[in-house]
Amino acid sequence: MSIADWLQSPRVRRSVAVSAVVLATGGLVLFRTSDTSFASTIVTHATGTQATFVGPGLHGTVSISQSAVLAAGDRDVYAEVTLAADPAARATDHAPLALAIALDTSGSMYGEKIDQAKRAVLELVRDMRDDDQIAVIRYSSTASVVQPLARVGDVRETLATQIRQIDADGGTAIPAGLHAALGALDEAGRGRVRRVVLASDGLDGSRLETERVAEEAFAHGVTISSLGIGLDFDESYMGAVAREGHGNFGFVKDATSLASFLERELHETASTTVEGATVRLDLPAGLHFVSATGADARVVDDKAIELRFGSLFARDERRAIVHLTARLDAGESARLAAKADWTQVVGGSIPFVPAHVDVAPLALRGVVDAKTVEESRDAVVFADATSVMGSEREIEAAHAYAAGDVVRARSLIDQNVVQLHAAQAAAPKPVAAKLAKQLEVYDETKKSFNAPPESGAGRAAAKDAFENDWKNLGRRSY
């Protein structure tokens, strides 16, 4: 039964369940750092449709949408994985960081745009700590290094002078700017959290190349965020770069808001407490992977799904929705097991400490009674899956509208409204309130799509819709 079918059922109830730690099933495991003199405990337990775990600097859940499926057929099942980074141990905690800014200085940035962008970068440099490292890259038809990676305290004054001298001309070679920024970070000191912020007001034809570069950079521990300035950039291009780089994506109508975006990037980079977070779902016989949203998903030997989340800053929360299909005979059961790995950023002489936990497995069984299936369902997981699928559909609507297909855009939004209303009716109150907020946003989006797509208001509406729902794919933004 699909989400759409299940949401129409009036008998849906969430299986209630969070209870005591189950030590008898291996719920208590020992964690050790590379320093064998240090040890702490990781607690993991499972009840009903949810397994939880708590470890050094991070806690999370692995949940499934139900604990029973109808036998003799392929049935949709959804898994939800959430990760939450703990607050920093002290208010003064600060991860050593290396930050590279790749700034578009093409001709379209000439005038007030480039002046505002330079002021934003100057504010960023002013706010960075002396021991932070920074590199500044400018790119147009080609890329050049304004400031090689250096300690901020050593270059603050000279860098300010160099930034003020930047002008704007030429074309837009986004890959060149990204390559140069990543090259600068090759010089980053040991134990630093590394991030690139890519800002552009234009587009070029190199999206696939840029996505590949961002994906490879993430695999080597570099986070990439992207910011689109104005109404002429390609949001799908810049959003894809941020997705592959596991950073943030933002849209500002002019460069005046660049400063606040850079401020957020600085805060997140400086307060990074977890890096390299991954969750592996081991799929038993009878369960098959379909797709995942919110994390990079890699199929391992057709028997496991590895979800790569990357870095989290203090108090950050991430989630992934995994679509599976189940085929179980009556009385047959399958156990979905999970493993989580991450590196805690602690600073000091050993800045990174690895952690691993085996998450308590969740059971799924085949039954012949549809009522048993309905009673086993977790309405929160279904609501979250509906919310994420709604965001994917809304992004599709934004693309359709931008391309001039207003009828299709409105049809997709109408589908979202039907699905979200049904999920809202079945969800617990806190979750239902979030779905109500999402519905309000979609109502406003549909109204904004009354503007001609080619107009300034229309282009802004498409980019706003894309940004709002892009954020909801990996983090709850409603």
Keyword list:
alpha+beta, about 475 residues, six-stranded mixed beta sheet, 19 strands, single chain, seven-stranded antiparallel beta sheet, 12 helices, globular, about 35% helix
Give a brief outline of the structure.
The chain has 478 residues and is an alpha+beta fold. It contains 12 helices and 19 strands.
Mean pLDDT: 88
Largest beta sheet, briefly?
Answer: 7 strands, antiparallel
Radius of gyration: 24 Å
Stretches where pLDDT is under 50 for at least 5 consecutive residues are: 6-41
Shape: globular
Strand content: 25-35%
Structural class: alpha+beta
Q: How many strands?
A: 19
Strand order of the largest sheet: 1-2-3-4-6-17-14
Tell me the helix content.
25-40%
By DSSP (H or I, 4+ residues per run), the number of helices equals 12
Termini separation (Å)?
Answer: 26 Å
Question: Can you walk through the features of this model?
Answer:
- By secondary structure, this protein is of the alpha+beta class.
- 36% of the residues lie in helices and 33% in strands.
- It contains 12 helices and 19 strands.
- It has helices at residues 3-7, 112-127, 152-164, 174-185, 207-219, 235-245, 258-270, 370-375, 379-402, 406-426, 429-448, 456-474; strands spanning 28-32, 39-47, 50-55, 58-64, 68-70, 75-85, 97-104, 133-139, 143-151, 193-200, 222-229, 246-252, 272-282, 287-293, 296-300, 304-313, 317-326, 333-345, 352-367.
- The strands form 3 sheets. Strands 1-2-3-4-6-17-14 form a 7-stranded antiparallel beta sheet, covered by helices on one side. Strands 5-19-18-13-16-15 form a 6-stranded mixed beta sheet.
- A hairpin with a 3-residue loop joins strand 8 (133-139) and strand 9.
- The longest helix has 24 residues, at 379-402.
- The chain is globular and about 75 Å long.
- Mean pLDDT is 88; it is low at 6-41.
